[in-house]
UniProtKB/TrEMBL annotation:
Upper taxonomic lineage: Bacteria, Bacillati, Actinomycetota, Actinomycetes, Micrococcales
Protein name in UniProt: Serine protease
Species the sequence originates in: Cellulosimicrobium protaetiae
Domain of life the protein comes from: Bacteria
InterPro entries per UniProt: Peptidase_S1_PA (IPR009003), Peptidase_S1_PA_chymotrypsin (IPR043504)
Length: 359
């Protein structure tokens, strides 16, 4: 079916899924249960569009493995959709980096429920060391967060902090990488590498938190994003596919890549677009948040497309056009069983931050 027809059916099926959940007494809003683990166990479905072999679209239905009621609802929704449906199971979906001890309400050394901490430095295959000049794919984080990935360099049209101007250069990553807590404020120190990889202030300071898109419990989100004003504007903006200065809307089926702190350069395929009601567990303080209009990617290699610590990576087509900002992943699912990755549409990210990719 064409995209417009698929969108109409998606909307109808989303209403049907909510009705089934309400009948079962299983409909749970994120704001009603502060514990992320409890909300993610709720039998909610994510529904979007999946590329179809005929060049059109099928309806993408995603439910969490191990939740019988969700599976039952997914089957009924799939039956209603007919032949043009793509049903997949996922594990728990979590951000791919965690707040450091004391920022998410956990005890020292803990990451908090629902959060997926970065892979330890010794087992990461990406860039976890100190890198100057800065380049995409390296370890970076707020001084009180563990470690994530520097996704891209951007400029911001209206400087968000004192001392910045139109020529200033910013690092783009996720809110949970560059801020990590509702208590984070503009001016907080950002280090490279991230603290989990040995970075500390003042020796490894590279900039300060400048702007973010707030995350709020009980509010449906579209992006997990923030930028840091860099102390040194001289950077290396090259990716494995060259410099990336253009963006596009994901259509589904694209071959994509990313360069991340943990898994390095990996390849994947866009398996769903416009996914709504993607429930992501953020742990204490925020609980589980729902995201709409998300992009799903599965690995096309033997290993996962992403793991903990890859949050903030820019996801791009093989021709060097940016599609999304990686922010979360599931523990299982995908063609090779290593999990599914979720990304915010890059156009929405840049629009919310008033930013453009560094030319």
């Amino acid at each position: 079916m064409d995209q417009q027809k698929a969108r109409e059916i998606k909307s109808q099926l989303a209403d049907y899924a909510r009705e089934l959940a309400e009948r079962s007494g299983a409909a749970i809003e994120a704001r009603d249960v502060p514990d992320a683990a409890e909300v993610v166990r709720a039998p909610t479905l994510a529904i979007g569009l999946a590329p179809h072999d005929d060049g059109g679209y099928a309806i993408a239905v995603r439910y969490r493995l191990g939740v019988p009621t969700a599976r039952s609802i997914a089957r009924k929704v799939a039956s209603e959709a007919g032949d043009t449906v793509d049903v997949r199971r996922t594990g728990r979906i979590r951000p791919l980096v965690a707040a450091a001890a004391g920022r998410s309400g956990g005890s020292p050394g803990e990451s908090g429920p629902g959060l997926r901490p970065p892979v330890v430095t010794a087992y990461a295959t990406g860039e976890t060391g100190r890198v100057r000049p800065l380049r995409p794919g390296v370890s970076i984080a707020h001084v009180d967060v563990t470690a994530g990935t520097l996704g891209a360099f951007v400029r911001v049209a209206e400087p968000p902090v004192a001392g910045a101007d139109a020529a200033s250069v910013y690092a783009l990553s996720n809110w949970h990488v560059l801020a990590g807590s509702p208590s984070a404020r503009a001016g907080d120190v950002v280090v490279q590498p991230g603290p989990a990889d040995g970075g500390s202030a003042p020796d490894d300071r590279v900039g300060t938190l400048a702007a973010l898109v707030p995350l709020e419990a009980g509010v449906t989100q579209t992006v997990d994003a923030a930028v840091a004003l860099l102390d040194e504007p001289a950077v290396d903006p090259e990716y494995p596919v060259g410099r990336i200065t253009e963006t596009a809307v994901a259509l589904g089926g694209e071959a994509v890549g990313k360069s991340g702190r943990t898994t390095g350069v990996t390849g994947g395929r866009v398996t769903a677009i416009e996914l709504d009601d993607v429930v992501v567990g953020y742990g204490d303080g925020l609980g589980a948040l729902r995201f709409d209009d998300q992009i799903e990617v599965e690995s096309t290699g033997d290993g996962p497309f992403s793991r903990g610590g890859d949050s903030g990576s820019l996801v791009y087509r093989e021709d060097g056009v940016a599609l999304g900002l990686l922010f979360a992943g599931s523990e299982t699912g995908g063609a090779n069983g290593t999990g599914l990755t979720y990304c915010n549409p890059i156009g929405t990210v840049l629009e919310r931050l008033g930013a453009t990719l560094l030319a």
